[in-house]
Amino acid sequence: MSEPIPMDMDVDHDRSNGAPSSPTQPAVPTSPEVLSGNGVNGATNGKAPTPPPHKSAPTSPAPTPAPTAEDAEAFKAAGNKFYKAKEYKRAIEEYTKGM
Questions:
Q1: pTM, whole model, 2 decimals?
Q2: What residues contact 11, with CB distance under 8 A and at least 6 apart?
Q3: Is the dihedral of CA 38, 42, 43, 49 positive or negative?
Q4: Dihedrals φ, ψ of 59, to 5°?
Q5: Among 13, 48, 85, 98, which is most buried by a count of CB atoms within 10 Å?
Q6: Per residue, what are the HEC states of the chain?
Q7: What CA–CA distance (Å, rounded) separates 22 from 10?
Q8: What's the CA gap between 1 and 3, in Å, rounded?
Q9: Interhelix angle 69-84/88-98, nearest 10 degrees
Q10: How many CA atoms are closer than 13 Å to the CA of 53, on its beta-carbon side?
Q11: How far apart are CA 93 and CA 68, in angstroms?
Q12: Separation of first and last alpha carbons in the chain
């Protein structure tokens, strides 16, 4: 009968492919420095990890400045013209620009 293998050794008993067994990775250290981190980037000493840089420009449209009083009157006049021509959708668009 063979000798018993100690439980603390990691031995690969299946050597059907002929490759030598490899040891497993060591256990995760539990020192206070590691435990104080976020578990992903290691110890942070109470500071948050630096976020990654942005890779693309924002896709939201740039804000448009509010129209001046003269611009608002011009949009209202254009809206009135479209309203009288029964082009209601375009009239609403012009009135909305003036707000």
A1: 0.37
A2: 5, 21
A3: negative
A4: -95, 0
A5: 98
A6: CCCCCCCCCCCCCCCCCCCCCCCCCCCCCCCHHHHCCCCCCCCCCCCCCCCCCCCCCCCCCCCCCCCCHHHHHHHHHHHHHHHHCCCHHHHHHHHHHHC
A7: 9
A8: 7
A9: 170
A10: 2
A11: 17
A12: 93
Contact 79, 92 (CB under 8 A): yes
The HSE-up count of residue 97 (CA atoms within 13 Å, CB side) is 17
Token match 């109470």: residue?
46
Structure tokens at 52: 């990654």
pLDDT digits (tens, 9 = 90+) for 13-65: 555 555 555 556 656 555 555 555 555 555 556 788 888 887 776 677 777 78
